[in-house]
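ERR on first pass: missing label on line 2. Operator R.T. fixed the label and resubmitted. Corrected input:
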Amino acid sequence: MKLSFSSEDEQFREEIASWLKENLVGEFEKIRFRGGGGDEHMFSEERHTWEKKLAEGGWTCVGWPKEDGGRGCSIEQQVIFFEEYARAGGPGRVGHIGEGLTGPTLIAFGNEEQKARFLPGIINGTELWCQGYSEPSAGSDLANVKTKARFDEAKGKWVINGQKVWTSLAHEADWCFVIARTDPDSIAHKGLGFFLVKMDQPGIQIRPIEQLTGTSEFNEVFFDDAECGAGDIVGQPGAGWGVAMGLLAFERGVSTLGQQMSFQNELDQVVETARENGSAKDPAIRQRIADAHIGLKIMRYNSMRMLSGGGDGSLQKEAMIYKLYWSSWHRNLGKLAMDVLGAESEIVQNDPYDLTRLQSLFLFTRADTIYGGTNQIQRNIIAERALGMPKEAKVAPQSN
Amino acid sequence: MEFAFTEEQEMIRDTAAAFLAEVSDSESIRKAMALEQGYDSDVWQRITAEMYWQAIHIPEEYGGMGLGYVELVAMLEQMGKYLLCSPFFSTVCLGANALMVAGTDDQKTQYLSQIAEGSLTATLAYTGTGGRWDAKAVEATYLESDGAYILNGTLRYIPDGHTAGLLIVAARQDGSSGEQGISLFAVPADTAGVQRTWLPTMDQTRKQAEIQLSNVTLSKEALMGDAGNAWNNLNKIIGLANVAVAAEQMGGAQQALDLTVEYTQERVQFNRTIASFQAVKHKAADMMLKAEVAKSAVYYAACVAQEALFGGHLADQISEAASIAKAYCSDAYFFNTGCAIQLYGGVGFTWEYDIQLYFKRAKSSETFLGNGAYHRELIAQQLLD
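pass 2 clean. output:
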């Protein structure tokens, strides 16, 4: 076991840290530490400009292979990049779905034409992506997709009908990847396709979802004869589930390290608040703050173990605990923040419903244990796939 | 960065597991724990002569194997898993560590070599009767007189204190308080004025003793380091010990999970294995989370402990890393064994099934060197005061 970074890696750290110091200034000063979870709807235009700035410096898609236009960074360097980015207060990345999900999926499953068409826009920060997985009847039961895609011979295009939900950044995105049923008689994970769909077209309507935070990071997206080019399906019709599952593995990879630095920023604010308002003297609060500190430290060690295992960042059995662990930790931090604030926790900054960062943390973290696989689904996955306990009994699905 | 066992470390772990499966099965544990000395002398003889485990991280110049804390932790994890009854923890993780941190060259040459060759067992005796684990735990006192030290006081909760051949004793200068005035002494157990009494314990797999010091007179050669300035060393020894306990706890937490998954897949109720019920699966999933997170905490702390003992830039993180590991693993082990008894149901409450032994070890190891709340408060002091 070795815990130290090589001198080349430390040099790399120096490089990204000083680039951020020089560039995350001026017009970008106001978006430092902004646009993260619970704040994703803020400053989207400025953050898009920032995304292009990052791209100019060669700091997008750092983990992609060089032959696909990435920076070809090792796992260690990616860890360093995300750490330094978060440490500097780098704003929430509007390009993260393209960089973290679409790109790796196309690199793994896409054809040359698709890579040539879509990867440059992600690398340059010019084209933004959103994710079309969940539907009103496909939440935890993600394969229960009702959205349909049929190939229209006359148009020479795929035509998509249905509805997606919980789509973040939908109104800013240029493209959406969508799983839709290519075989109308199929059920569950069979007969699905993975489509790359242009957002700016008459067949697509977006409706923001007003959340309990009073804000709208998430949207509903309606597909009403939306069109998708014949070449814009990844993999074969009917093989979309495999592509989608491969993508979920990417979703839980390296970028979670950067998320931890944001968590550290939040925890620091809670600690600071406790010292200022005197609650740091309360023995119960002291215990919980220390517990949060311990939990976050070990979260980092978890990631280090996870990333040391499969050199490609793929998931080992042990890594299945990851989502359950961080989401529960983060939700607890939100509650702790309110308890540290005490009576003041109720007072919002302005009408209407202008929440402080910690209030937003408290409310938004209730989503953490739901999206991307609820804690209950995570426990099923751990018990069945990691511990080999019996699977849930299947109830015969209704046909679509 | 390679935050995983090397092939060699995996081999050490697997060899330990294979040997322990043979010598520390249910029957052997129960036989050993019924003895006042708390271990089977033949097994200890095999460990020291055949396996050479006691020498694992002792430097080669003292006859040790010269491996590191990560290798030690890899073995401790298995000892926790198999609930080994032996003086290994007290001798190696308290005694040898104390000598390596604070011993003079002469003390190391004499005692470390004897420990390495398997002829000497040892322990650390720093806690008085007050039930504390910090500097205020040191209650025994010493007076300096004519170039000699005269020790008095009662030491309690001392692991293997009634059997260890060498006692590393902490005492404070008469009249001192807190972190001031503390000294460490290497005291052969047969020194005049040392009286030792076995204390029967709820967890029978790890023995404790009370040690009475009545005008124990020691020469200067017994003093470890500077007189009155030993708190930093003692604190480091305690940190290293916490990492070791946490490693055993983590192994035990994993074993509680493994035994529970196995049992629930055999036990049938309502015409199905109880492992097929979501209420059971979700509890098992929570147990796996605790065991895995405990591993991350222990492996990191092991790397820090390695540098604390042998040098490196992480060395001064030892107190924090040890508290993190001990706080998490104490709670995780207790949680997992508590869940295990619940999921076993009625048989989990019997003397016959081994899960009770793990439950009791979880509690005793949680208490020893400070429970989760104690270590969280130490962290809180660093963060908040």
